[in-house]
Design a protein that fits this description.
Length: 76
Amino acid sequence: HEKVKVILQIYPFNKKIKGDSKKVVDFIEIEDITEKASLCRCWKSEKWPYCDGAHGPHNRLTGDNLGPVVVRHKQK
Ligand code: FES
């Protein structure tokens, strides 16, 4: 029962972001990224499309290993 409960908590991945949209697409202007931007891939961030650390509790609950993609300027 615990496994079923965890699975039901996982699907669908997106439980809250732009629920009225058929597909969630976001645009970030490259020029607006000053140093770096961490983009959420777990669908749980309150600061979507940016990561706010919400992947941590998700990973602890599910054993998953999700994390953001970090977009940054090339290191010199
Ligand atoms: Fe979603 Fe960090 S909050 S990847």
